[in-house]
Amino acid sequence: MPAPIEVLSGDELRARGATDLRTALSPAIGVEIAPGGDAGPASSVPDFWGLKEFDAFLLLVDGVPWGGSFNPALTTLDLNDVERIEILRGPAPVTYGATSFVGAIHVVHKDSREGGRTLTLQGGNYASGGGLFSTPIPLGGNWSSRLTVDGERQGFSDDRTDYRRGHGLWRAGSKPVNDERTWFNVDINWLDQSPASPRPREPEDDEGGDAVKRLAADQFVAEIPIDANHNPAGAFLDDHRFTGMMGFDRHVGSSLWSTTASVSHSRQDIFRGFLETFDPDVSDEGEAHGVKEKIHLTDVYIDSHFSWKFPHSVTFLAGADYLHGTGNAQGADFDYEVPIDGSEAVVADKPSPLDVTIHDHRDFFGPYASVEWHPMERLRLDAGIRLNVTHESREDADPGEGTSTSDHRTDVRVGANVGATVTAWQRGQDVLNLYVNYRDTFKPAAIDFGIGESDAEGGDEGTILKPETSRSVQGGLKGRFWDRRMEWEASGFFMKFSNLVIPVDVGGLPGLSNAGEEQFKGFETGVSFFFPHDFIARANYSFHDARFTNFAEETPDGIVSFNGKRLEMSARNLVAVSLFRAPSRGFLGGVSMNYTGSRFLDRANAPDDLVDGFATVDLSAGYRTPRWELRVDARNVGDRRDPVSESELGPEQFYLMTSRRVSGSFSVHF
User: Fold this and answer.
1) Is the pTM of this model over 0.90?
2) Residues 154-181: pLDDT tens digits?
3) Which among 112, 151, 166 is positioned nearest to 135, based on CA atoms?
4) Which end of the chain is less crowded, N or C, counting CB atoms within 10 A of the terminal residue's CB?
5) DSSP state string for 429-488
């Protein structure tokens, strides 16, 4: 395809002991995964092309947008019993309705026909532990099914921070006959989290002015310990999610008719808070702001398309998809005082009633078509077009403040892509391809269901933000050499972006806003070696330059222009190097290193807002036979605690890299 796509096999993921997204994608080119974030310690914040926005990428699980019409459901992503992960870098403007601007992550679980049973038990520091059991379940006839059940508790060095997860996935399918098949999936995820706190960087006094900044060597407030937790006692971020999926492939005349459908319901329960104003020179306590909220999200996804193979090497596909989302939130906010060093879990009264409400309904519909044509043996042309028809309505109400707002928006816009691949050289299984593509992408803006925002003056609360759009060009080389023992690629990209959704401070409360225009450009390259004796070596380097080109923000000091400034938390340089051995019998293990370059903590790009780059190192070692495996994994062995993502809820606060982690596991296959 005329795009950079990387595939990481499930066997490689298991050889590296990858059970979270950061570890799984650590060898991927041009991708940085920050663990944790506002969604809790079980979540993460991906970065593609220098854009670390919570909904700029597309997350897919077994062909279904995971999170539907709202935001990627990263907290409920389970990486057990995975067959492969596909990573696309760049926009995906034609298929899946929930469009990506910078990349897509597609997690594909093992087929229902996969045989063998696996039992795994694991434990680690911070009272972590869990288990997994996966087994086929015979159904008779041409049908097969597979059940995976797992549970875990994951602790952290941060005070009062952990998560408990229970997960079950049942897959059933018929045996493919002449490319025809039917399949069903049921996924249940029960997640309870005790959240961490982001670390504040700038003290602020109660009158809203800056207090004396007294920073530690890492540029954060010296009086606040690195693992301090400012949440109220008993804080939680719970997400209980059910998803049902089905699909079929059928021959209709000369075409193959494929349909995928899913329905998902998520119940989220939130009780948390953030340190807001404090002055270490005046008091050991600061003012914190909390929220108690219940959010119910329902998503429905349907895709149906036909594909034809015509003479002269032409494949044509036409279809449509529909994505519906309904979100209902009710909650209330509250204030409390907390020691700024987080030494005490303060008991805060849970507000009642939860009378602040948000109701949001989204409908995304799009007919689309694409064509693949090989006019000659060494040339492939790809083109696709999609008509986006989106409608959203939103109602906010705060009876306590006597406010009520509503808004609706309908957009009709075309998205398209066109690309070409040329085979410049080929010998046996080895090949060198050159490719180029152009993509025009559209997506409605994100919504975060933030309670306590609607009474802020001068913000966009209660209104629907403008949709995000982009136009991009991308080109590069992809090659296989030495009888496919070496894979190499290099690519460059340039993207113009409009209406990027960014977090802003609205009257002292967190909010979202459109950010005018941005420009993204960069270069990415990587090489993989598949050596004898089951060794795999990977190395990659990426340069990203993400800047505002037409954006200004109103501040207490007047209008401030950010034109030419780099996006906050966007690293220009990424490096990843790894070497692993994954035999079917014998000693296994390896080492990997990921380097994240310097980044600005603020979009103003002041010199003291620039933090140095950092590197994390992971180690693995173990022994396996065809029947069992014993292993030990160590993550972030250097115990780096650098800032990796910005909070959109805590003012001037940042989540840090998780501390050193060591775990051991024992698996039996039978």
Assistant:
1) yes
2) 999 999 999 999 999 999 999 999 889 9
3) 112
4) C
5) TEEEEEEEEEEEEEEPPP----TT-TT-TTS-TTSPPPPEEEEEEEEEEEEEETTTTEEE
Contacts of residues 594-600 at CB distance under 8 Å and 24 or more positions apart, as own/partner, are 594/26, 594/32, 596/32, 596/571, 596/642, 596/644, 597/571, 597/572, 597/573, 598/571, 598/572, 598/573, 599/566, 599/568, 599/569, 599/570, 599/571, 599/572, 600/565, 600/566, 600/568, 600/569, 600/570
Distances (CA, A) of 664 to 133, 140, 582: 17, 38, 17
pLDDT in tens, 296-322: 999 999 999 999 999 889 999 999 999
Peptide bond into 651 cis (omega under 30): no
Query: What is the rounded radius of gyration, in angstroms, for the C-alpha atoms of the chain?
Result: 25
One-letter amino acid for residue 71 of the chain: N
Query: Are 37 and 45 within 8 A, CB to CB?
Result: yes
Please choose, from the candidates 493, 494, 472, 652, the residue with its C-alpha nearest in 3D space to the C-alpha of residue 568: 652
What are the Cα distances from residue 156, in Å, to 42, 229, 387, 443?
11, 12, 46, 36
> Residue 11: in which H helix or E strand, if any?
helix 10-15
Strand segments (E) across 195-230: 199-200
Whole-angstrom distance, CA of residue 579 vs CA of residue 643: 26
Please state, in angstroms and rounded to a whole number, the distance separating the CA atoms of residues 53 and 59.
Answer: 13
Token pair belonging to 167 = 């997960």
pLDDT of 204 strictly over 70: no
Q: What is the mean pLDDT of residues 124-144?
A: 94
Give me the half-sphere count of Cα atoms (radius 13 Å) on the Cβ side of residue 102. 27
Task: Compute the distance between CA of residue 292 and CA of residue 397 in angstroms, rounded to an integer.
Answer: 16
- Residue 560 is encoded by which pair of tokens? 């401030």
According to the model, what pLDDT value does residue 652 have? 86
Tally of residues, the chain: 670
Distance CA 594, CA 603 (A): 25
CATH topology for the 5-669 domain? Maltoporin; Chain A (2.40.170)
The pLDDT > 70 percentage for the chain reads 94
Structure tokens at 204: 């602020």
630 close to 663: Cβ distance less than 8 angstroms: no
> Where do the structural domains in the chain lie, given as residue ranges?
5-669
Buried/exposed code over 440-459 (b: 16+ C-beta within 10 A; e: otherwise): bbbbbbebbbbbbbbbbeeb
Which helix (H) or strand (E) segment is 14 a member of?
A: helix 10-15
Q: Is-contact 382 471, C-beta < 8 A?
A: no
pLDDT at 281: 82
Average pLDDT score over residue span 243-262: 96
Phi-psi region of 637 (alpha: psi -120 to 50; beta: other; left: phi over 0): alpha
Residue 50 is which amino acid?
A: G
Sheet containing strand 653-656, edge to edge, reads: 199-200, 653-656, 643-646
Q: HSE, CB side, 13 Å, CA atoms: give it for residue 423.
A: 15
pLDDT of residue 448: 78
